[in-house]
Every structure is written in C-alpha cells, then in structure tokens.
Design goal:
Nitrilase/N-carbamoyl-D-aminoacid amidohydrolase; alpha/beta; omega-amidase; six-stranded mixed beta sheet; 283 residues
Length: 283
C-alpha cells in the first residue's frame, strides 16, 4: 500500500527572547508554542539554538541536562503531544552519560515521542580580527551523526548553526532525498550581516530544497548578541519569509512540489561530472 504524501505543510518559526533563567525560558517557549498553534495551526514548530540558556561557553555545563529525562525534554514532549505537532526543539546543552556536553537539537512527534536528536557536528571555533572570538570546543564535544526525520512523507535534514557553512553536509542530506534542511542557529553581529542570508540561499540553491533557520531574538544588552532574522528560503533560493531582529513568530506555507519542479527544470543533480569528482556520499 503506497504512502499518502501531502505536499503542503505549514511551519512556525519562533524567534524567542532568551534570559538567564531556564524556567522562565521554558515557560516562555511553552506559551509561544501554544499561541502559535492556536493562531496558525502549523504542522511543525521550530525553536532557536540554545533557547533554554544563554549562548556562551561558560553557561553550557551549568545549564546542561540529560536527554530525554531532563526538564527541557519533558516540557517539549508534553507540548508536542498536547498540541499534536512536530517540534524541532532548537538546541540545548546536553550532558551525556560520559560527562561530555553537546549542543543538541531534539525532535518530537505529535505523540510526544523523541524521534531524533542531532548533536552539532561542526563546533563554532572562530577568531575574526576586530570582530568576534568564540570557541565552542572549550566546553562542547562534536556530534558525529547525520540526522534525518520524515514528516508526511518528506525527508528533512537537521543541522545546527555552524553546520550550515559546510556544503558537504548539506549535499549528503540531498543525496539521501531530503527536501528541507532545518538549522536552529544563533549567528552574531559580525557574521550575521555578511553571511546569514547568503549561506541559506547558497545551501538552498546548491541542493534545490527548502532551508529553514530559527534564531534567538536580538538582545543588545546580552553577552552574545544574536543577529535574529529567522528565515525560510525556497528551492529557487528565494527568501519566502524573514523575521526582523526582535521576538517574532514567522509562519510559512511550504509546497514540497516546488522541490521537484526546480530539480526537473534545472537538473544539476543528474548533470554532475562524477567521472571527475565525487559528491555521492550518503549517511
């Protein structure tokens, strides 16, 4: 019996204010999820990177918790079940059984089940002269696994923030049949203005799929100032919807049939010169 595929899907991206109080952050995220579902009825709700804690190496261990037994996981599980939606749970600092800490995205089904988790594969270690220095590797360990979920017959690849800079990772997801990539992300005021939109449109154009990013809202008084501008980009590399800097809910209606239209009209995938270079790796 063939699977019924629905090509239309509504997303809600929650660009949230984040404080130093984990309980307040969880309560705020819960309120915003309920409001988004009541008003917009999305199939998937996405949250920002580090939505339950400040983004900073000195905070990761303090705020870290186990998955799925931690309070953040339990909150998202209950909300997904209560609202009957998929939740791509941004990211949180995860404390593993071996005492390592990961930057981890959890994904929850409408039944409240943890269907996948993605540990950030590429750690954000940069030193831009006159701009920003940040070393996630001072505290975090890198994940080693690709993460693909399937919603209504459509494969969706998951990455976190700095992962988006690596085209090879996105290509692996494309090779596995993904039609959308979702990146919870917290670009900063140095790299954001230069590369935020550019990278999303590049990954969408390279792989002819949707790219979705969800950022924390910008807090000019914060130690780490997020760029904001949560965004949805279509397979033509067109920006479909974008937030501004502050707290905002972005709602976008996705038509997955556009993925196949673009791939048929500009068939770069079948035209690759695999006799000269290899880009066929899968998970």
């Amino acid at each position: 019996m063939s699977k019924v595929v629905n090509n239309l899907m509504r997303l809600a991206l929650l660009q949230l204010n984040v404080s130093k109080d984990k309980l307040v952050n969880l309560q705020h995220a819960s309120q915003k999820i309920r409001e988004a579902v009541k008003e917009h009825k999305p199939r998937i709700v996405t949250l920002p990177e580090c939505f339950n804690s400040p983004y900073g190496t000195k905070y990761f261990r303090e705020y870290a918790e186990s998955i799925p037994s931690g309070e953040t996981s339990q909150t998202l599980s209950q909300l997904a079940k209560e609202m009957g939606i998929y939740i791509v749970g941004g990211s949180i600092p995860e404390l593993d059984s071996d005492d390592k800490i990961y930057n981890t995205c959890t994904i929850w089904s409408p039944e409240g089940n943890l269907i996948a988790k993605h540990r950030k594969m590429h750690l954000f270690d940069i030193d831009v002269k006159g701009g920003i220095r940040f070393k996630e590797s001072e505290t975090l360990s890198a994940g080693n696994e690709f993460t693909i979920i399937e919603v209504d017959g459509h494969k969706i690849g998951i990455g976190i923030c700095y992962d988006i800079r690596f085209e090879e990772m996105a290509k692996v997801y494309r090779n596995e049949g993904c039609k959308m990539l979702i990146y919870p992300a917290a670009f900063n005021m140095t790299t954001g203005p230069m590369h935020w939109e550019l990278l999303q449109r590049s990954r969408a154009n390279d792989n002819q799929l949707y790219v979705v990013t969800t950022s924390p809202a910008r807090d000019e008084k914060g130690e780490y100032v997020a760029y904001g501008h949560s965004m949805v980009v279509d397979p033509w590399a067109k920006v479909v919807k974008s937030a501004k800097e502050g707290e905002e809910t972005v709602v976008a209606d996705i038509d997955f049939s556009l993925v196949e239209q673009v791939r048929q009209q500009i068939p770069v995938y079948s035209q690759r010169r695999l006799d000269l270079y290899s880009t066929n790796k899968k998970c």
